[in-house]
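Form 7-S
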Amino acid sequence: MAMQKIAARLGLLMAIAASGCDPDCFDDGELEAVYRDGRRAGEAFSAAEYARGRADGLALDRADGVAEGQTEGYEDGHAQGSDGSSGYAAGYDQGYAAGVADGSSDPGACQAGGDAGWSDGESEGRDAGRSESWDDAWAEGYDAGLQDGQASCEDDEQSAEPVASSPAAATTPASRPAADTADGPDSGDRRTCYRRGYQEGLDEIAYERGLAAGKRDNPEYLAGHADGYARGWDDGVVAGAAAGQSDGWQDGHDDGFADGYDEVYVGCYDASYADGYDSGWDEGWADGRDEGWQDGYDAGHADGSTDCPP
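Output:
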């Protein structure tokens, strides 16, 4: 009794946390009496449901046992057949081998790998070539620009740069005050406590437990169940092995195809990458020299102009 009361109080605390304010159904007064009435009603209903289920279980005959046993046996046998050595695993191995062959012979694998390899290689080669030539070209351009900048000192004119106006300071809107809230008094306390007591005493699966008990005490049903289970098991193993092998073959084929495809893809990628890199390097070297020389010239010219006498 003490454990039941503790459990009920814990349930009440959880309800209070969810709703914020609830009646005290353990006030040692009227509300607790109502709570206990509800619990007794829930227990009485559960006992009646248990008895009804047990009666139904005792009323089953051999044919009922055969039918239910066959269904359960088929399900268990199907799982066993699917997971067995001649089911999913065997189908997977066969499908994988077929998938590798199909993937490696896909004409799009080498084309896709070659295109990607050339694109990546050309891009990285261009970057490397540009980096290789840019520094030397910049130095050459700087020297040329410095000389031209110093020679242009006589024509230099100073110009003032406009001063940018300061942006207006952003204003922060005042935060809105939180609205005052107040919870009104709760109503229906007696009904709430009765309902909680009822739920405390209620067994949601009382009928199912009674039915199972009735079946266990019914020898005619049990004999039929055993016979039907054996038949269902044999049929389920055969069907499960076939279904598992089919599922395994498909999964294995998907994985094998991906592996075979990838192997060809990578080979063609690597071969095209080298060619693309060489082509990109040549183009990048030329671009880097042009860009580096111009950047260096601009920097040199600016420095030469800065050194002009006032």
